């Protein structure tokens, strides 16, 4: 299989998991409880933190050092650029987080339902980039199958946390008055940016191979911005926020085990 096919397959899996999560709208008359929502958000945050470290930052440092340069420069520089990129999107793209009254980003007259979809679509972008870059890195190292299994581990981890993420989009849309079918479609399509950005990243990585460490750490910075700005705060809203903390720990543990055991 070509790197492009691997990336398309990996991000296609994460998209499928988002779609399966969105399908829960057909089985629940009401949205998930606040307690379960905090666990889901915390779990997603834990997965993304572990993936940023083991699947992106550490490989970025190793790649830079193997090329004869200091590993911390592209790791720190790319990380900062990734944070800046998501910060810019956060300011420019109008969006509304589930449970919030007021939208963020540029002023718009778009419906609340559209803004809810934009909110999740925003942080699916770095996830697609991360999976695509992992497969691109494996391809650049030729026959090092361990890198492909590491990329697969990342795709599996992102896919697992995308399941509750898809539900977290579709169920609030249903509560806003949208039909089940339309809420499902919107929830599913919120994950469509992952295969798009995953494939685009692979295409781009082939032409700028020397900048691979920067791109890996860029994706890590973008993911960490999402975790700190959105997921962890939302996982600790209301009473009994310790369930959100436990969700973070569980997500981190599972992603760490996947990456270390397979990578």
UniProtKB/TrEMBL annotation:
<feature type="transmembrane region" description="Helical">
    <location>
        <begin position="183"/>
        <end position="205"/>
    </location>
</feature>
<feature type="transmembrane region" description="Helical">
    <location>
        <begin position="40"/>
        <end position="61"/>
    </location>
</feature>
<keyword id="KW-0812">Transmembrane</keyword>
<feature type="transmembrane region" description="Helical">
    <location>
        <begin position="6"/>
        <end position="28"/>
    </location>
</feature>
<keyword id="KW-0862">Zinc</keyword>
<feature type="transmembrane region" description="Helical">
    <location>
        <begin position="211"/>
        <end position="231"/>
    </location>
</feature>
<feature type="transmembrane region" description="Helical">
    <location>
        <begin position="243"/>
        <end position="262"/>
    </location>
</feature>
<keyword id="KW-0472">Membrane</keyword>
<feature type="transmembrane region" description="Helical">
    <location>
        <begin position="73"/>
        <end position="93"/>
    </location>
</feature>
<dbReference type="Pfam" id="PF02535">
    <property type="entry name" value="Zip"/>
</dbReference>
<comment type="similarity">
    <text>Belongs to the ZIP transporter (TC 2.A.5) family.</text>
</comment>
<protein>
    <submittedName>
        <fullName>ZIP family metal transporter</fullName>
    </submittedName>
</protein>
<dbReference type="GO" id="GO:0005886">
    <property type="term" value="C:plasma membrane"/>
</dbReference>
<dbReference type="InterPro" id="IPR003689">
    <property type="entry name" value="ZIP"/>
</dbReference>
<keyword id="KW-1133">Transmembrane helix</keyword>
<dbReference type="GO" id="GO:0005385">
    <property type="term" value="F:zinc ion transmembrane transporter activity"/>
</dbReference>
<feature type="transmembrane region" description="Helical">
    <location>
        <begin position="145"/>
        <end position="163"/>
    </location>
</feature>
<feature type="transmembrane region" description="Helical">
    <location>
        <begin position="114"/>
        <end position="139"/>
    </location>
</feature>
<keyword id="KW-1003">Cell membrane</keyword>
